[in-house]
Each structure stands twice: as C-alpha cells, then as structure tokens.
Specification:
With 459 residues, the protein is α+β, with helices and mostly antiparallel strands. The chain has 2 domains: 162 residues, Ferric Hydroxamate Uptake Protein, Chain A, domain 1; 292 residues, Glycosyltransferase (Alpha/alpha barrel), CATH 1.50.10. It contains 16 helices and 15 strands. It has a 5-stranded mixed beta sheet, with helices on both faces. A 4-stranded antiparallel beta sheet has the order 2-5-6-7. A two-stranded antiparallel ribbon has the order 1-10. Helix 9 runs antiparallel to helix 10. The longest helix has 15 residues. The chain is globular, with a radius of gyration of 22 Å. The two termini are 43 Å apart. The relative contact order is 0.10.
Length: 459
Amino acid sequence: MRVHNAAPAGALAFAAICVLATLLTLRAPTSAHASVLAPAVIESNMLQATAANTATVIIQFDDRRSAVRTIDFTNPISGITALAQSGINATVGDTSFGPSVCAIQGLGCPAEDCFCNPNFYWGYNFWDGATWQPYPVGASQSQIADGGAIEGWRWTGTDGAMLDPKYALAADQALAWLQSQQDPATGGYGDSVAGAVEVVLALGANDQSVETWRTAPDTPSLADFLRTRTTKFSRTGAGEASKLAVAAAAGDACRTRAMLAPTNYLSSTIGAFAADAGFNAWGILGTAAISKPVPSSAVDSLLALQQPAGGWEWQAGFGQDTNTTSLVIQALVATGQPITSTAVVSAVTFLAGAQQPDGGFVYDPAAPEYGADANSTAYVIMGLNAAGERVDGESWTTASGATPLTYLLGLQQPDGSFEWQAGSGPNLLATAQAAPALLGRSYPFAVRNLESCAVRARQ
C-alpha cells in the first residue's frame, strides 16, 4: 500500500501533465544546495533479516539499460529514502519544491541546476501490478508502507515509458542466487577464477561492486578473492586478461601490480590481440573497458574475419556461431562501428537465422536440433542490444508470441537460478550470463581506469 500526502488539486493536475515525481515542474529551482546520497552498503540491502518488509527500486537509464535493488524497511519510508537505501548514487537538489533527484549514477543535472535539460528528467513511478503509474506527489512526500512495492525511476522525456519490471526482477533474483552460492570462506566460487569473473560481470551489469559482494559483513568479499588470484589469471592468455579487464571495470575491482592488461597481448606483427576472432574481440573490449585506445588494426583484423553468411567463428575452422558473433558485434560497436554498417547489419541477419520458435537462440544455426540455450540467448540479446535492436519488439517475436527475453524467463527456477536448457538444473554460468541480458546491457558495462589495489588498501 502507498500513502500519498494530500496536495492541492492544481498541483496534482500539473504533476500529471508533467509526469514529474521529485519535481512537479520543469522550471528552474529558486534555490539549490548540493546533496549527494552516499551509497548504502550493499550487504544491508541483501543480508538484513530483521526488516518486516522489502521493496524493489528499479533505475532505468535508457530504453534498455536498468539497475535493480531490493531494500528492507520496517516503518513507512519515502521514495527518496528508498532510493538512498538502495545504494545507487543519487544527486539531490534542495529546491523550493523540496528535495529533488537531479542525477542518478552521474546521469542528469548538477544539484545547483537540477533542470539543466528541459526535455529530460528523472521521472518517478510505481508499479500497480499491471502498469507503471506516475506518482502524484514528489519522492520526498510519497510513502511506501507495505512490502512488495516496486518503485521506478527513469531518465526520460515526456513521452518516455518504463520497461516491464519482470525482467529487472528476474535479474535481481538471479543475482541473489549467485550470492547464495558464494563461498563464505574465500569470497569466491570454488577455486575457479573464471567462474568468479562471470559473477563479477553479472553484478557489474547491475552497477554493484566486488568490494561489497559477500555473504555476511564479516566474511571475505569477492574483491578479496580476486586480489590474490587475478595476476596469475591475467597471465593465462589474451582472452582471460581481457575478460578480466571488462569484469574489473564493471565491478570496480582493483588492479594488482603484476596483473597484465589486454594491451600486453597486442601483437605488433599482426596488429591485433590474437589471430582468431574470439580472443581478438575480447582484447578489444578489455582495452576499451579500461579506457585505453584500441588500435584500428585490431578492428580491421576482426572485420576481415567475418564469414560470408555474416557471422564469426571463435577460431579458424570452428564454424561461425551466435556467441562469437554477438561478442564481435559488441566489440565493433564499442569502438565506433556504426550499427548501420554492413558488418553489423549482416551479423544481425545471421543471428536472426538462429532464433527458434520458442524465442531462444541456438549456438550453431546449422545445428538447430540441439535446441536453444540460456547462454547463447543471453549473448545474442547483448549483441542485439549493442546493435540497437529491441529484443522485445516485433522483429524478434516469434509466431507463438515468444521473444528472447520470455525464453530466458522460462528457464529461471523458483530459487532465482537459471538452467542452461530446460530440465538441466541450476547452472552458475547460465545464471551469471542471463542477468546482464535481462538488464538490457552490452559489453563493456563500464569504462574506467583500474585503481591499484595497493592504493585502494591505503585509503
């Protein structure tokens, strides 16, 4: 149940017209004072067992990309308090209309000029069980009283719409399951660094940090696990070093002194990170993720390996597949390749030929008898996101009404995990790769210079 504070009828009508939540007008505020909501510790969102109720906060940054947080509370709280408790960085302006959200995760306007863009703002909504509804009061006045509330924020113009929350909620459940599988003794996932990196990518897609990913406040974090193992992993090869770089940037992991960057594998002979498409694509993505320039020769090498049917093969002779093709699309777009280019359009056409009647995608379009699977479908969704496709749109809806997203949802288990294929049981890799797809993401999830672990330890 939500309790809305009373407001004058004129103000409510104006709010409905503007569809504004934290601010009921697009006028500049008469006064503003900078205020940043400090990130709440993620563990408090996931581990508190004493709270009577939970609510879900969904942040939608554009037409595809979302982040989701589950919060706990006992007494009724306002929407702006729920946002603060979610751990998402929000910049708040103290205006004549009350506290107002100006930016989230750096997207938006400064507190001193909360309405710097007259056409875009952070709209505030709630899910009524069937559709999103705009709040008739500001986020500092709204009240969340009972559990099960779904709060939505969207950076949008007046004609913007929130996505169906079921995808973000499914990702949230997947992440909760992944955390339940974490080893409390080491902070990792068994002895597999590769498995841990997949989890880092999943939580990074949701704008969460490895530093706070732990089973309990006094147990090692995923960051603790990585700090002792990433050096060796990065020296395994170009693919490992590059995938680690993408994950580290996404999950805000630090860089050990001897950890190799993707650029260490750049060959001056061939001008690429590897001769084969899969490793080279990861090299490009890893280099872009840590904010280093990607040589045009590496991109040219990748383009030259496209097959006549539009796909790419992981290594020469392997045959083109959907996973590699989707990865290459993301690498090309990340380095400035237009989504209207022949290479990207041909790749999308290749992927279309791999979609099955159930909405999912097979690994090899030439072998549809093996059926669609979660990992291939998740990778294709991410590739299509990068290519500007709407995977819930008509172009990707089958005759039975299935989409890639509904196929993925069909593989989620009651505990939040995902199966690789129906009946195969919970799968860590499938669950980790499903989460970014459901959140509308594509590689790289974040671009940042990696901080030294030694420097971070001194802070």
